[in-house]
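Changelog note: in this version the structure field was regenerated for every chain. One regenerated record is shown below for reference.
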Amino acid sequence: MSAQSSAKEAAERTAAVSFAEISSKRRGPIRRYFHAHPVAMDWVLIAATALFGLPNVVVTLGKGEWLPLVLLLAVCAALAFRRRFPWLVLALATVSDVLTILYTSTGSSSIGIWIALYTLATTVRAAVAVAAAIVVGVLMVAAMGINLPPEISESIASGELPPYVGLVSGVIMILFNVIAAGIGVTVRRDRLHDMELHRWAADNAMLASATERNRIAREMHDVVAHSLSVMVALSDGAAVVVKKDPQRAGEVLGQLSTTGRTALADMRRVLGVLREGGQQPAAPLEPAGSELADLVEGFRAAGLPLKVVTSGPPLPEDPNFRLNAYRIIQESLTNVLRYARGMSEVELTVARSDGQVYICVSDDGRAPANVKSLGAGQGIAGMRERAAIYSGQVACGPRPGGGWIVEATLHWPGEELAHG
């Protein structure tokens, strides 16, 4: 299994667990129990069907009629399979009620057909469920018209009951069938809504996971690219001066060791974000020794003739803003260290005014002919992504008089609000 698929499954599991907790809180204790134990719900409905039809069975048994008991047992047995075969269970319940009406003296008294209609409505479209409820009701009304109980016929003939009583009874029967189907339609709609929310939660979890992976990838790129570039420059410098000035070579090697340890510390911080479980908070992505002065001194030790120009107030105290500015400067200077040759000056400008921070890194060097990129080509894209977080932009390209220039503008809304 790939790392990407593992991350996707983990995100979906996290979303499912979170959504399950939210859905569970919306239900009462009884609903939560039956939602977790659907078989128990089936047995409750079977018992209710049996109890509701029991009086009719007792009366018909007293008259020597066994058919209602057989049909009631058949419907109860069929309800155990209502989730797997809703259409078949509805057909059997309908046939059972029609036979009871046609061939017994008391008529149907089973609620099995309503349960079957409800179950069917939870699996099909609303129009189909309502149509099935009406068809079933019409069949039952037709059976009642064929075998109307004698006492009702006598009451209609004597005028005690109006002649349209059968029509009213049929409409009421169909109405109850439609109500049973309507309840199922509502439950199906709620279930589809829950599924949609579940997919939404899973999509959000995947988006958050992808965003965090991209963020970590940017940090790893900046840490590794900067540190290795500085370490290569320091080791090359030490190799040059080791015979002429052993003391200076020792200082360079000491700086090399310090840079390596700092890189390891930064990588531990970045990779600490990936830890799962436990009670420890997520590790921050802020690099060790993230002060701009430390970064500048490191590049100077690596051989860059770096000049720093600052103006305006210090950078905002927000750690994320400072981190993005730090990484843009770090990436720009790393590219100078990698690619520029024969430079006499590298200038770093950091200016803050009117709710924005302006960063400029320029050099007067030249790029070697047919140079091959030492990185993955994501450095400039990463800088632009970081600037975009604060509604900023990054422009880079060759200088008119030779060399290279990187200009970045980051907007700080907190200062604008304060002045407004």
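Spot check on this record: Residues 292-420 form a domain with the Heat Shock Protein 90 fold (CATH 3.30.565.10). Confidence is low (pLDDT under 50) at residues 1-8, 10-17, 276-285, 416-420.
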